[in-house]
Amino acid sequence: MRKLLGTAVIVGLGLGTAAPAFAQGEQFIPVLSYRTGAYAVNGVPFANGTLDYLALLNERDGGINGVKIAWEECETGYATDKGVECYERLKGKGTTGAAYVSPLSTGITFALTEKAPGDKIPLLTLGYGRSESRNGAVFPWNFIAMGSYWTGADVAIQHVAKEMGGFDKLKGKKISLVYHDSPYGKEPIPALEAFAKKYDFTFKGIPVTHPGVEQKSQWLSIRQDRPDYVLLWGWGVMNGTSIKEAAAVAYPRDKMIGIWWSGAEPDVTPAGDGAKGYKALMLQHGPGQFGVHAEIKKNVLDKGKGHAKDDFGQVLYNRGLINSFIGTEAIRTAQAKFGKQPMTGEQVRWGFENLNITEARIKEAGFEGMMKPLKLSCTDHQGADLARVQQWDGKEWKVISDWYTADRSVLDPLVAEQSAKYAAEKKITPVDCSKAG
Amino acid sequence: MLYRETGQFKSTYSADMGIFPLRQDRNALFVLLAFAFIGVPLLAHFHVWPFGSEYLLRAILLPFLILSMAAIGVNILIGYCGQISLGSGAFMAIGAYMAYKFGTGMPEIGLPPLPVLVSILLGGVCSALVGILFGIPSLRIKGLYLAVATLAAQFFFDWVFLRVAWFTNYAPSGSVSAPELNVFGWVVNEPLERYLLCLTFVTVFALIAKNLVRGNIGRQWMAIRDMDIAAELMGIRPFFAKLSAFAVSSFIVGVAGALWAFVYLGAWEPLAFSIDRSLQLLFMVIIGGLGSILGSFLGAGFILIVPIMLNLVPSELGVPLSTETISHLEFIIFGSLICFLLIKEPHGFARLVTLMKEKLRLWPFPY
Amino acid sequence: MTALSIAIPGGIGAILAGLMFTLLRGDRKSAIDLAVHIFLAVVMAVFLAFLAAKAIDNPGGFLEILVGGLLSGVLYSLVALGFVLIFKASGVFNYAQGAMVLVAGLALVRSLDFLTASGVATVVAVPLAILFSGAVMALCAFVIEKWVLRPLLNQDGLTLFMSTIGATFVLEGLAQMVFGSEVYPLKLFPTDPMILLESVFPGGILVNKLDVWGGVIAGVLVAALALFFQYTKTGRALRAVADDHAAAQSVGIPISWIWFIVWLVAGIVALVAATVWGTKLGIQFSIVFLALKALPVLIIGGFTSVPGAIVGGLIVGAGEKLAELYIGELIGGGIEYWFAYVLALAVLLVRPQGLFGEKIIERI
Amino acid sequence: MSVKTEMPVAPAETVPSLAMVMAEAERRPEADARQRLTTEVLLSVEGVSLSFGGVKAISDASFDIRKGEIRAIIGPNGAGKTSMLNVINGFYFPQQGVITFKGEKRREMRPYFAATSGISRTFQNVALFKGMTTLDNMMAGRTLKMNKGLFWQALRVGPAVAEEIRHREVVERLIDFLEIQHIRKVPVGKLPYGLQKRVELGRALAMEPELLLLDEPMAGMNLEEKEDMSRFVLTINQSLGTTIALIEHDMGVVMDLSDRVVVLEYGRKIADGTPDEVKSDPKVIDAYLGVSH
Asked: Do B233 and D168 touch (CB under 8 A)?
């Protein structure tokens, strides 16, 4: 027992002596990432995008309105307990603590949802996390900007209906969902079940166990079942394996639609030609280089300060850029009200809740073509219901659809129901949004 | 010179059977407990470095305490009774999920939500029951075969908690979040409060474990471990001894699992109790020392803190390494350390402490 | 279901239950054993009868799953073989086998990429790359033998097992640091599907060419190993060491050399496994999880039996695919995650040393 | 905890009784040897056969052990002596034969049943609990007599502590008797062979057996140690009245100690009788010296 104490003190010493050397007045943003393990293929480009945009702001503008940004990366390995440790490690750093946290893992998001209100740190979960956290009255600290899995499920069904020639054609059809057996993969199921009831198609969920390299039986069952469409909710190596296995059992790839987390370059390239025809949703954006990329190239990469390699302009890299863009815009919004200094988590939360990224602002920041305007509010922490569909032609992603808008008439009751359940379980009194300012 | 047993005479057997027969050891324990229960809260309250930071309490001490407790449970099974288990993670999960069910009530059978403390203990009881069930094969299967067989429990329960929606109160995502931690009206929320709650649990369970292993049942366990055939011929029933070890071990591990979920994570999914957790616990008891309660603490400390330190050090020292490299280095150094420790002292830290004490007892004379 | 599809499975089930039961009566058992065995016999019989019913319902589909399962089982065997070799010769339960597959695969694919990028023709590049990765495996075997196993000689099995987990961490970290941590596609074998017996069953039976290749390679590998053990001096020495370390040492067999050799052979087996698995999945970190898939195969076959590893693989492969598709459907899917382990547990309850393991006689 | 011990409850007075007798024994080691002998049969084996696979270890062996005697089982290596002890205390199950202990006929013994009904033993290759101290090893021998449940043990208050102390007293007596006070708290794995044998005897005695099976108690000992051990064996037999079955190769020891001797060869009984009878039996001489025809 004595040794134990010794160890604890040593750890303390280690932490303390190397006390953060952040200069006065820096805005600290923790970056939870994973560059190793089964999910690194997707984790790396996202992290690179996230970091490169922050670097761009520092290099080009000297930060946000002159307030320098400081950040630190912490490897979570997509594991919840390591994510929580990273969060605890980083949340108090910098002048004002963490501005916001993007866990990039639905599991970590669930764990941090319990901790964020106590620590007063907003969570930015761009297109992932708790779908019901759209309801800001119950989840004041969660910001599931741009889209939830339920939005994704809805858009996917809309696209299926469109390819079939109308919602009435869905009747009696079979749609299967191959999903990562975790909170992430399970999230869309209630929405899909609701749609199955509404449009009278047969829905079947086929789980794939972490990490997802063994999918033979799943695809054998699909071959025997012959569903009309297969939706894919995978992450990391699971995506590539799914597409390969689909090819191995000769399931037509153009009848597969992946969520926006299953629609990036690392997901399709390992399958080679086998991936040709595979479709995936776009969280508004796709791959490609836009205004902001030129700026990053000029101000960051060419100075040797960036992280991007081959992934520059890839889907997940771009999503990382957007993630940092939205986060820093929230800080900017908060600064407009609270002054040009490092914002606290609470102030950033206000910034998120009053975030309004207009067409003009998007153009100015160089994100034109990557995203549509986004406006969050107390009642709506998601702010957008837009998505498109892209298809892999063997070399690159091609946009093949117009913008879809998710059908909120089905999704909103689900959000209301699940968030009410959460509030009851946690004894939360929902914020009165009419009074929130 | 301070560490001497001379002059300490025992006139009763009960004095001789104390946990620490030596006065110096006893005093050291009291000082440590006093520090943990009174000192740490005071230091934290006055924000005395390093206890002022939440990080130490929440991200290091809290998991350390809970995993120490789980390691004690695992040590009872592996270290004392000699039954290798790779399924400890599953028993943590059973504790966590059943505590959650008791804590949120089971309307199907008309059970209202129970107080959180009762739920946590009941979670442990459920874990113990399942432990007994999965202990039955140990009557026939031995050694590494048993170890792999216990993986059946691990994978089976991983799946159960993913698939059976009842355990998660039909949450669509399958992730559940702990009910409010209300211990007899005391709402445990602040890191310090959480720390004290866990500390109390760990102290009580460490004491219980220590009592058991130095009593009759502990001797039965060790007899089974050292020579099961001879033990049976001595009138020790393997059935009772092995299953009681499974029960006690799973109970403690289950309670630790409930604490891990309720107090540390807050919200969790089955992945929090995966095979990695089982291996981690196994490492803790082996590096710490099989058959030693103290070793469980030392092992937990080492296995938990070393990777964090390895991860922290480069960035704190400003060594320009990418996260990726740090993470790979962490793996390499950690793995090498494990091999090194196993080679240098296969009996773990606990043996090192014993050796150190022996040296100290003789100091300053070498013989 | 027709009457036939109830009667036949029922009959098969009854026969099997009786068979299981007679099988169990040979040995003296306690009441608990008896209860467990009756329970297992019944469950097994019900399971098989259920499968028979399904087979009658849709013979084509059943055959397809069975063949697919058997072939994927062979791929598990490839990993399990490495375990068996090491356990047999050195009594070490080598958790690092999965990591060794990763190391071998990374070495292979990266050197192959490098060679083809520098303009070497594929015909030359492939053997060169295989040679290179073989050398890497030799280095691994050397280092593990010298720095991990030799100092731990005479420690108990658990300590050795833990030390191989330590080695796993080191190998994972090193391999990824040296060779990179992305997914590297490898294409040594064809992976396209082919449809067999289309005239007999509607839709035919889909078999993947890669799986067939895997089966062929496993067969060749086992044959090569058998020849090696039977007809070479080193092979005979290996068998002697496997029988009794001390006795082998006393007749002058250098034990550390033998251990090096056996780890090297296991490394080569890992390399072979890596070529097949790498073609299937791409060489990537997740390959290490294969170790966990190989464990139940080992248990069922017995830790010390090469044929056991193959038969165990076939049983696990076919069993889990059939279970997943037919039973998983009923209870929510994903059961192949634990099915192999529960099957292994059931086998152990009947035969604590696995199907092909040597029977343990207890002495005092 | 829902688990309860189901230990058979020992009558309270047996506990001090052993202690008292031990004290007696130390004072009065020379008791009248002839008085203890009775004709009452404590254990008999009839027609026992045991084989492993095809190998016959024991074939159709019968003999009895009378209450209060020291019965030696001798024979060349591989004669099936240890297998016979294993059959008697239930570790091996014979294919044929009947075992009668205290008037109760059984097809086979069960280890736990043998232990509860009063058979304890030592082993040819010491089978101590190596990681435990001398004291714990001997306390483990008291398991059958301890009956406080897990709950009390976990709390270690009142009844559990009282029980622990009561049994500790008994064990301490035995420790005094066997003269092993100095190694009380040493893990037995670290002890020299001779002492391990002694601790093992202590562990068997702690069970307060009616029948004590000793498998080569003096193997590998020097003369002095053998004398000590012989003294212990005699004292146990004479003062406690414990019946003893003994396997031993040292003929001098066997002849001095035992009341009756049974001789096995290749699993068969070839002679049975008093030491003198056996010594002069030509079959025994053949077995030991080899047949010279």
From this structure: no
Pick from D127, D141, D160: CB nearest B215:
D160
Q: What is the per-residue pLDDT across D9-45, written as a single tens digit (0 to 9) for each?
A: 444 444 445 555 555 555 544 444 445 567 788 999 9
For A25-148+287-385+416-426, the fitting CATH number among 3.40.50.2300, 3.40.50.620, 3.40.50.1820, 3.40.50.970 is 3.40.50.2300
- Assigned domain for D238 exists: no
pLDDT tens digit string along C254-282? 888 888 888 999 999 999 999 998 888 88
Instruction: Give which of C160, C163, C290 to mutate to test B binding, by max B Cβ within 10 Å.
Output: C163
Distance CA A206, CA A183 (A): 14
Q: Within a 10 A sphere around the Cβ of A289, how many other Cβ atoms?
A: 15
Residues in chain B with CB shorter than 8 Å from the CB of C151 are 343
Residue D229 lies in a domain: no
CA distance D77 to B39: 68
Number of domains in chain D: 2
CB contact under 8 A, B84 and C158: yes
CA-CA distance, D132 to D188, in Å (whole number)?
6
- Which CATH code for domain A149-284+387-411? 3.40.50.2300
Question: Domain count of chain C?
Answer: 1
Per the CB < 8 Å rule, is D123 touching C28?
no
Based on the domain organization, do D201 and D152 belong to the same domain? yes
**Distance separating alpha carbons of residues B74 and B256, to the nearest angstrom:** 11
CATH number of the domain to which C340 belongs: 1.10.3470
Q: Which domain holds residue D131?
A: 1-30+124-208
ipTM exceeding cut-off 0.85 for this assembly: yes
User: 3-state class of D272 per DSSP?
Assistant: strand
Q: Are C293 and C321 in contact (CB under 8 A)?
A: no
User: What is the interface size between A and B, counted as CB pairs within 8 Å?
Assistant: 163
- The 3-state secondary structure of A329-389 reads HHHHHHHHHHCCCCCCHHHHHHHHHCCEECHHHHHHHCCCCCCCCEECCCCCCCCCCEEEE
Q: Does the beta carbon of A270 lie under 8 angstroms from any beta carbon of chain C? A: yes
Alpha helices in A18-137 (DSSP H): 40-56, 80-90, 106-119
- On whether any CB of chain D is under 8 Å from the CB of C364, the answer is yes
